[in-house]
Design a protein that fits this description.
Order of helices and strands: HEEEEHHEHHHEHEHHHHHHHHEHEHE
Strand order of the largest sheet: 1-2-3-5-4-6-7-8-9-10
Number of helices: 17
Helix content: 40-55%
Largest sheet: 10 strands, mixed
Distance between the termini: 47 Å
Oligomer: single chain
Number of strands: 10
CATH architecture of the largest domain: 3-Layer(aba) Sandwich
Radius of gyration: 22 Å
CATH topology of the largest domain: Rossmann fold
Shape: globular
Structural class: alpha/beta
CATH superfamily of the largest domain: Alpha/Beta hydrolase fold, catalytic domain
């Protein structure tokens, strides 16, 4: 393993002030002399080299999100003091983006998968979606068999330690959002003495089961939707003048599109219940998208036009106007399916979907059934979910947003309590993750922690 840790990568200019390089890691850490992968990295160098502390590694989550693309987009939105003292570093995790990407489905095949009825109402519909899910798993086995056993977060977190050494940092400074919190937490569990400062924003709960995660996530979307509705009815709302009427209007829209798709001026896709639900869910990730969601729902309810909802859904799955997809979806499935044990069959899976529907009638079935390919995945793990303590690590900052749609606030509370050195910082707000929303209280507390490694008081609540 020494050869991997002793790499000295050569950084080259890659435009707009950024530098890029690649670092090698073993495909299988149990066989370090076997096949290797090249991981793609990008950095925005510290603006004041005389005050440089080291590198601030970032991960946008997903799993499947490109850290290189994330860094290009947001590196300059980090605070000026951070940018003076740290190189802002992004990386594509194994199997993602430019790092030996996993590819399973073609664009038309993904269109068919996402357009399938992922809220099945009877055995015939369950069997039909199961067939789509099996086809997905088989496509991944056919095209990415070598990578699939090594796509788990434990391997990816080990990669981070190699990257840390490669850039010359003795300890890790890290900002991870959403799934990036799970990646960071497992890093801390494996390498607690190598932690300098870790920010875990929009936390996942490591001890949740694979289906339990989806059930709880669906509740998060329901909570976020209620917040959207409460805001909508205070304005000119296409859904009615009361929250009850608005929720009923959307439930009726989903029922109708389960049978009769909306029109679409973009392409030939049928805008059915699955695409509509995905479009709504996408807009709940950021409060800034609520006006667009009001417009999209107005077009759908009043004119039967699903074009804007489809545009929103395409953002979620990174589908381009030409019908091609990034590899985000394939990588997302490949990571999720091997990280935790999965139910043995569709019938067992359906029990979790039924549970989700009771607590989240609008989003429950859609969120839970979407993970069905994992039942048929060619690689299954026996590694059980368990709490992460990271005993011996320096203080770790966990940030939670009270009405986060994708990572419910209770997960931030749980992760902060599991970590021996966990510190909880909360935002009374909406949207997915908190730090890059621009809230002054969150920004100051986080920037100070990343700069000095001194966390805010545990339990601090920002408004």
């Amino acid at each position: 393993m020494d050869a991997f840790y002793q790499q000295k990568p050569t950084w080259k200019d890659c435009g707009d002030g950024f530098q890029c390089t690649a670092v090698e890691v073993p495909l299988d850490y149990a066989k370090p002399n076997g096949s290797r992968l090249k991981l793609s990295l990008i950095r925005l160098p510290a603006s004041d080299p005389s005050k440089r502390v080291g590198s601030l590694f970032t991960n946008p989550g997903g799993p499947g999100g490109s850290g290189v693309g994330f860094a290009r987009s947001v590196a300059r939105t980090f605070g000026a003091d951070l940018r003076r003292r740290f190189d802002i570093v992004g990386f594509d995790p194994r199997g993602v983006g430019a790092s030996a990407p996993v590819r399973c489905m073609t664009g038309p095949q993904l269109d068919a998968f996402f357009g399938a009825d992922s809220s099945p109402d009877d055995k015939r519909e369950v069997d039909a979606f199961a067939a789509e899910s099996k086809a997905y798993a088989q496509a991944c086995q056919a095209k990415a068999a070598q990578m699939l056993p090594h796509m788990g977060t434990v391997d990816a977190s080990h990669d981070i330690d190699v990257l840390r050494a490669a850039v010359g940092d003795r300890k890790l400074t890290y900002y991870g959002a959403s799934y990036g919190t799970y990646l960071g937490a497992l890093y801390a569990e494996q390498f607690p003495k190598n932690v300098r400062a870790l920010v875990l924003d929009g936390a996942l709960d490591p001890k949740e089961s694979s289906t339990g995660t989806l059930v709880e996530q669906s509740k998060g979307f329901e909570t976020a939707f209620r917040a959207f509705v409460a805001d909508c009815v205070k304005r000119t709302c296409p859904l009615g003048t009361t929250a009850g009427a608005a929720k009923a209007k959307v439930a009726d829209l989903l029922r109708k599109t389960d049978e009769t798709p909306l029109t679409n001026t973009l392409d030939t896709r049928k805008i059915n219940e699955s695409w509509v639900t995905m479009g709504i869910a996408t807009a709940l990730y950021a409060k800034e998208s609520w006006p667009v969601l009001r417009q999209a729902l107005a077009q759908a309810v009043q004119n039967g036009d699903g074009t804007l909802l489809l545009r929103l859904a395409d953002q979620m799955v990174e589908r381009g106007p030409d019908g091609t997809y990034s590899n985000q979806t394939d990588a997302n499935m490949a990571v999720n399916c091997v990280d935790k044990p999965n139910p043995p069959d569709a019938a067992t899976y359906g029990t979790s979907a039924d549970e989700a529907k009771r607590s989240s009638p609008l989003f429950g079935p859609f969120v839970v059934w979407g993970g069905l390919p994992c039942v048929y995945w060619p690689v299954q793990t026996k590694r059980r979910p368990e709490p992460v303590t990271a005993k011996g690590a320096a203080p770790i900052l966990v940030i939670g947003t009270l009405r986060d749609p994708a990572t419910p606030y209770k997960w931030a509370e749980s992760l902060a309590s599991q970590l021996d050195s966990g510190v909880l910082l909360s935002l009374d707000g909406d949207g997915h993750t908190a730090y890059l929303q621009g809230n002054t209280c969150i920004t100051r507390a986080t920037d100070r922690y990343l700069t000095t490694a001194e966390p805010p008081k545990n339990g601090t609540l920002c408004h």
